[in-house]
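Worked example 3 (structure in, sequence out).
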């Protein structure tokens, strides 16, 4: 192999290392058997969810993962492999793939990585069942605000009933 080819492969590995490092989550997929139309639909769904979808050679992925210290992926990198990189919502790649795997049974989830932790197929599916970060934050804020909303309601009802109480007292004195 020429030195130029070695430099090119090293550069590609470095680019993949950077993509992995910047991602909050990723999922490895076996896409063998998908039609062009199905693959296009999958790519469009990923794009709409802010997920990058790339087909990367297994040898490049092995080198990139090993460079980052992840050795658990070596056995997953056989056959055709695509990678879904999520940066904003860590659940997005897993959610899209889980939904599309039901629609396109040929898609096989191999494994995943979330915040530096290796996930097997069951782990990827469990991440897919989680709600997004924004929904969890909204629920937490809602539960924190519930007591305050209840107190505001009680105080509002008390103030609203004050004129009726005063009118009842005035009516009682008038009798």
């Amino acid at each position: 192999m020429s030195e130029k080819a070695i430099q090119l492969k090293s550069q590609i590995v470095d680019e993949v290392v950077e993509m992995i490092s910047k991602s909050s989550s990723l999922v490895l997929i076996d896409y063998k058997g998908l039609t062009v139309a199905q693959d296009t639909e999958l790519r469009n769904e990923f794009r709409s969810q802010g997920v990058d979808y790339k087909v990367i050679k297994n040898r490049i992925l092995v080198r990139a993962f090993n460079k980052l210290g992840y050795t658990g992926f070596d056995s997953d990198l056989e056959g055709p492999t695509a990678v879904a990189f999520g940066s904003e919502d860590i659940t997005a790649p897993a959610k899209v793939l889980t939904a599309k795997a039901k629609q396109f049974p040929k898609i096989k989830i191999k494994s995943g990585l979330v915040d530096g932790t290796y996930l097997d197929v069951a782990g990827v599916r469990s991440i897919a069942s989680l709600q997004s970060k924004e929904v969890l934050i909204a629920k937490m804020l809602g539960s924190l605000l519930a007591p305050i909303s209840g107190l505001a309601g009680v105080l509002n009802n008390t103030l609203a009933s004050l004129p009726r109480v005063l009118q009842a007292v005035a009516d009682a004195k008038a009798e």
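Notes: The beta strands are 25-30, 51-55, 82-86, 108-114, 117-119. The mean pLDDT is 81.
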